Amino acid sequence: MDKKIVLASAALALLEVLFLPLPFEQIVLVAITTAALPAVSLDLYAEYLEERKRLELEERLPEALLQMASRPKGTAIEEVLEELARQPGETGKQFKSITRRIRSGISAPNALRRHPTNSFLFKRVLEMIANAYESGADASKTFKQVAEDVLELQFISREAASAATLQKYSLLAASTLFVPFILGFLYNLVESLDFAGIQGIFSTSTMERRALVEAISLGNQAYLALFALITSSFVSFNENKPRKAVAYAAICLPLSLIAYYVARSASIL
Q1: N or C: which end of the chain has fewer CB within 10 A?
Q2: Whole-angstrom distance, CA of residue 171 vs CA of residue 159
């Protein structure tokens, strides 16, 4: 299904290049956006689903751990892990995978430490449980301590995530919408000025002034392209996912230039 969407968007982009009655550079931008947006959107949506699973896992983790902490003293950690595997949702799925490995003969500490996960918080929890298992600590006390640590870490990570999210969307909005519209509006304003009435100030010919205005427009577009690329790189590195820079750039770069063209061609009353 994904392949069909990508092929359809590529075909639509080709039709736009052939038949859209727009200046060449604008047709190229629209075509690139049409071709890239579906593929990038699918990739970002798949990542969103993974992120949602991670958040669900981390959200339900303290409750599950506190529930297990109420088990009688002396309960084996393997038994507690089996109960966690019966939890609903993503928590149960993750622990089910761990208990399956333990039943296959892998030691509990190794099964816990080697479990693949994209959640740093869950990785910490598994490491704590593995350490408690190796030290022979009481399971109920261990799970209670781990649950308290998770709640504290969740509070810290939420504060950091909230600030990072605000910064991320502010930058993306600035690079794709606000800055392009401001530059496009200013270009439009300068282009609409009546230079004929102020010949004493501007002694250049009409052709020279036209060339100057076009140079300003080209400089604006170069600036917007650079701003979009820098924003894409900064946001992706801030998320610890450098490969997403390409996905962000595929959206930000054409959208910022399209916004600029829209603002530049708008009528000033």
Answers
A1: C
A2: 19
